[in-house]
Structure formats: C-alpha cells, structure tokens
Write a structure and sequence with these properties.
By secondary structure, the chain is of the alpha/beta class. It contains ten helices and four strands, in the order βαβααβαβαααααα. α7 crosses α8.
C-alpha cells in the first residue's frame, strides 16, 4: 500500500513518521510505502493578493494543485491513497470536512483519499496518551492536564508547553519575544519524543483514532 501524505507542518510530519513505523512493525507482512509533502502552515482555501500570497507554502493555498498533481501520479496505481493531515484550529470540524471534500470533488480525484483533521491541533494527539508523555518526560507537570478537554477547541500546544517546557508557557513566550525560533522547535521535539512512544490502543483522542482507523483500514484491506 502506498500513502502520499500532505501535512500541515514539520512537527506533524515527524509524528506521522513515527505512526508509519509503528504500522510497519504491527503489520510486517504488508508492504507499506509512503511519502510526505509538508507545508509551512495551513493557510486559507480562499486567497487573494499576488501570486506569492495566493500560493506561498501553505497547505490550503496549494491544496487544489497538489491534489491534482498527486492524483495524476497515483490514479493508475492499484493500492494508493492521498492522506491530508491538518488542524481544524477554531473551525467547525464537520463544516471544514464538507468544505475539503467539496474541493476534492471539484478536483475530480480518482485516487482514494481521506482528510484527517487533528482537533484542535496536532498536539491533541499527543495529549491523548498521558502515559506516552510521562515516558518521554518523567518530570512533566501533570496538573496542567486537569482542566484540558480532549479534542476541545481550547489551548492545546499551550498545555504541553506548561507541562514540559522549562518555565512553562511563559518561559516559551519570553524566548519567542526575544526573537528566538522556539515554538516550532519545541513542537518538533514533543512530536518526536512523545510520538515514538504513542500507543494506538490507549490514545483517547477521537481525531487521532479516526486517523488510525483510516490508515489501518487501507493497510489491512490491501
């Protein structure tokens, strides 16, 4: 089975790499091949301005053109799927899915595809496995999980920052304000260290489980 991923950012790409390695270990008899195209953020489906502003390097800005391109490459492959992984941020998840499927229909995709939306953002998939967090960071400040609503439209990466970053969210913001590129680096570190310890079965994030089911169905049915 071949998977072509379109991924919102580098930290999510790191997490997807760990997930795919776990699938390869779980199904050693299956040939699982994948490639990833990561973007520098989510962008917008409706864009305006000059060509650079309309295209740039954001996922949604480029969604139509990349879907067409990957579809041309994969439509004649017997077992292939395009997997788009992105955050819903503050969007209504169901409305967002409908809008994304509308784009896919307009693009007239012949290749199997699925949109996997992290609710509210990728860090929710990490927060869905408390044991993985504690395995990666034994000194994590667990009290910040108390008021976190799993897959809620609420602070997500900020919760992880308070749990894991020296000085918490305030310390991270202070370095960011000083001009240091720390938020992206921290997210990549969390995705790597926690992602490699994630357990599919115990993860309580509904949107993560949707992603896992979408992948597993295609792997098992090949």
């Amino acid at each position: 089975m071949y998977f072509q991923f379109m991924i919102e950012d580098h930290s999510t790409e790191i997490l997807v790499d760990h997930v795919m390695e776990k699938f390869r270990l779980k199904y050693p008899e299956q040939e699982i091949i994948y490639d990833s195209k990561s973007f520098s953020g989510i962008g917008h489906l409706k864009t305006s301005g000059n060509l650079f502003e309309r295209k740039g390097s954001k996922l949604l800005n480029n969604l139509r053109s990349y879907l067409r391109g990957f579809d041309r490459s994969l439509r004649n492959m017997a077992q292939a799927a395009i997997i788009v992984v992105l955050d819903n941020d503050k969007r209504n998840c169901e409305e967002f899915k409908i809008e994304l499927e509308r784009i896919a229909n307009e693009t007239m995709l012949l290749t199997d595809h699925v949109f996997c939306i992290a609710v509210k953002e990728m860090e929710a998939w990490l927060l869905g496995d408390e044991c993985a967090i504690l395995e990666a960071y034994p000194n994590a400040r667990k009290k910040y999980l108390k008021d976190y609503e799993q897959d809620g439209i609420c602070d997500t990466w900020e919760v992880l920052a308070n749990m894991l970053y020296p000085g918490g969210l305030a310390g991270l913001k202070k370095k960011k304000e000083a001009g240091q590129n720390v938020v992206g680096k921290a997210k990549c570190e969390w995705a790597d260290k926690i992602g490699k310890r994630l357990n599919f079965d115990r993860n309580i994030s509904p949107s993560f489980q949707y992603f896992i089911r979408a992948m597993e169905t295609r792997i098992v049915d090949t």
